[in-house]
Structure prediction request, 212 residues.
Amino acid sequence: MRQGLQAIAVVLMACGLSWSAQAGSQRQEPLADSVRTALSAAVSEDDVHRAALQRSELVGARDAWVQRMQPLLEQRLRRAAVGQWRQEWGSQALQRELLETVWYEATRSRLEPELVLGLIEVESDFRKFAVSSAGALGLMQVMPFWMRELAQDNSRRLFHLRTNLRFGCVILRHYLDREAGDVFMALGRYNGSRGQATYPNAVLAARARWKA
Prediction:
């Protein structure tokens, strides 16, 4: 796995892309068979939620949310320490795709979309190809063991927008359930720093900015 990540890093640097991330890492924990089965179904590409989330009233809510978030996203991208943001999200169409995907994956996992945006901001600063020193990948900095645990698939798929957001949102929902809905503790578990305040406070502060 380490050789694979090194190879990815070489390719990204050759393309002039920033790839490091400062976030911590989720810790692999034993999963009961029933939990593994449920999580595997939740990350599956067979999306049983699609019809429900395409109801006209929800599509209207999504579009209104995207319209409200897009100026904020562009402002954030311009301020971010990412010289290549135009390559990844430089067009309004790409920004809309990102926001629509955030809304969809957050909603299907019963998460606030603004919380997911705050988490992405803290984890990767919206760098689609970010790789942390611990090996976490992509926008939501998902650890490759989740791909092995739930999908038995190539971890490089975590650089795909929808795959990364689906795994990240399902994992955060799992941690929220583990922590009986306590967002602070669930965020700490997501980051591998459960019980420490720095990371949850950073994500919650970012969420508040997106909700303002």
